[in-house]
Amino acid sequence: MDISGLRRPYKDRKDAFLEENILEKDPIKLFHEWFEEAKNNPSIIEPNAACLATATKDGIPSARFLLCKGYGVDGFYFYTHYTSRKGQELEENPNVAIAFYWDILNRSVRIEGTAKKLPMSYATDYFKSRPYRSQIGALSSDQSKPIESRTKLTEIAEKLSKKYKEGEVPKPELWGGYAVTPRSIEFWQGQTDRIHDRLRFRFLEKDEVVDNVLTHEGEGGWIYERLQP
Ligand SMILES: Cc1cc2nc3c(=O)[nH]c(=O)nc-3n(C[C@H](O)[C@H](O)[C@H](O)COP(=O)(O)O)c2cc1C
Questions:
Q1: Beta carbons within 10 angstroms of residue 114's beta carbon
Q2: Active-site residue flag, 110
């Protein structure tokens, strides 16, 4: 199946040019601006959906979508089963990459960093706030392990919903959160003329200095640079 002709013109986003002089110089604040715009766009159903890439200690990668459940100076949060494939890969290799994509805005954000487990109290609080069916779903799944049939899964869920009423579902012991501490955050804005904007925030390498030509001083210890599209 040849799908090479599949092409949609990007909406003109000149208003969204990433210009060095008008740019928010702190990538977390800039992410917040972009995220708010995505969140307030009714065409975007899950603005917090993102693709998380992990890798084994030998560098074999795997990627899956998840929902980002918070962000701030201490990183980007998500929740999952610690015993899942991603959880096992994170155990042996904390290096991750996350990509958000908001197609209607022609925007993507790429984050690279390291993941570490959040304190269990975060997961306990968040789990309590989840809808009943999501709680039962999490409790009934030994995530990423094979199972013989869907019927088997629904039987487990059914049994658990008989056992636990709303408000009583315990958090699975090994279900919890991670915070990804970013070491680089790239903002990509697609443009009609195909001269797309790419601005990457990162930290200075050892002995590197900001030259105000290719690299520029950001806020919060970050520097930034424009990448070719
Ligand atoms: C939009 C979307 C959101 C998802 N959100 C989560 C999530 O927040 N946590 C999670 O563990 N899995 C989530 N999943 C399921 C994962 O993509 C994946 O199937 C699961 O985490 C197992 O991945 P693993 O076997 O690589 O560990 C989501 C899937 C989609 C498509």
A1: 16
A2: no
